[in-house]
Design brief:
66% of the residues lie in helices and 10% in strands. The chain has 347 residues and is α+β, with helices and mostly antiparallel strands. Helix 11 links the parallel strand 6 and strand 7. 22% of the residues are buried.
Length: 347
């Protein structure tokens, strides 16, 4: 018996030793890259050192090679993608719901199994009685009584089966609901639900983390006459326009440029390692790409073209705050609107 346990014990010891080796490699990385040792960051870099995810290692290697900072929400996003599929925001609620559902389903299965066993025993007895009908010459009334008992038992097991199927359907619906809830809890902290873009909270975190870069530009983009689109075609068409513009902006991003849903009909684009001239060219390319968008409402058949945007571009100045950078871009965006829209400022 003792000899059979030794391989498992050795495996456990080897795992512990490997964990210590990984730990010794993880902590220096956190120190080297000036990353706070909070659980999310530790788990992220522990996974990196363990080589458990090639996708994670590739993303982190790129950031390290380019000397790019890692914001708190970017780290959280990578953790969600590569380390854990579950956000802990609603983990307790989800766990309780799942446990309650499983307990209820388990009890229903036990009840159904008990009813099935009871039904089988009863039917076996009735079958024995049927064999005796002819041999013992039962009366019509005795035979009818037997048939009535068999029908009654069949109805009982049918009701039990219906209850079980109902419990299964409820469980299936509950699982689907929990799946949606889990997806929402994963996404709502970082992403805009309508467009799928990173949200304003993510933008603030990324912008703050990039203040130390030598060059950084910000593009603020606003859809022209968006209120008129909503008033004329309805909010459903407005949502389609927002999604189409977001998709076009995303596909127009090059290098490390990153687009965000800033709020309402406004979008923000962070462009690292780019000066004002380069960023303005990027913004104008986005503006021209959006001019080609045509959106169709499948329900009504309405087709909407001539969608345009205005943009303001600012470049981070030495020792400038995020608020000042945003304010300068916003003023230029307002100027683009004032001058007739569908243009990028500065000229």
């Amino acid at each position: 018996m003792t000899q059979n346990k030794r391989p498992a014990q050795n495996d456990s010891i080897n795992q512990i030793e490997q964990s210590f080796i990984t730990l010794k490699k993880t902590v220096p990385l956190l120190v080297k890259h000036k990353i706070s040792a909070i659980p999310t960051n530790y788990a992220l870099w522990y996974t990196y050192v363990s080589n458990e995810s090639s996708g994670l290692n590739q993303e982190l290697d790129t950031l390290v090679e380019q000397g790019k900072p890692l914001s708190e929400l970017k780290a959280k996003d990578l953790h969600r993608q590569y380390v854990s599929e579950n956000e802990n925001v609603t983990a307790w609620d989800l766990r309780q719901s799942i446990e309650s559902m499983l307990i209820e389903l388990s009890q229903t299965i036990k009840d159904t199994q008990s009813d099935s066993h009871s039904y089988k025993k009863t039917m076996d007895l009735h079958l024995d009685d049927l064999n005796r009908v002819e041999k013992e010459g039962w009366s019509v009334e005795e035979v009818l009584s037997l048939v009535r008992n068999m029908v009654s038992e069949a109805q009982n097991i049918r009701q039990s089966t219906i209850s079980f199927n109902s419990a299964l359907n409820n469980a299936e619906s509950e699982i689907a609901r929990l799946k949606v809830q889990l997806q929402e809890s994963q996404q709502e902290a970082l992403y805009d639900a309508l467009t799928g873009l990173c949200n304003r909270r993510y933008f603030d975190s990324e912008l703050q983390s990039k203040l130390a870069l030598e060059k950084l530009s910000l593009i603020l983009i606003d859809i022209d006459h968006f209120k008129k689109i909503n008033d004329t075609y309805g909010h459903q068409m407005g949502d389609l326009v927002l999604k189409a513009v977001a998709k076009k902006l995303q596909s127009s991003c090059r290098n490390d440029a990153q687009v965000f849903r800033y709020g309402g009909e406004e979008f923000a684009v962070l462009v690292p390692d780019a000066d004002i001239k380069q960023s303005r060219q990027i913004a104008d390319g986005m503006r021209r790409a959006i001019e080609k968008i045509s959106v169709k409402d499948r329900r009504s058949g309405q087709l909407l073209g001539d969608i345009t945007v205005s943009a303001g571009v600012s470049q981070l100045e030495p020792n400038e705050t995020t608020q000042n950078l945003i304010e300068r871009a916003d003023k230029l965006l307002y100027e683009a609107k004032r001058l007739g829209r569908n243009r990028v400022m500065p000229m």
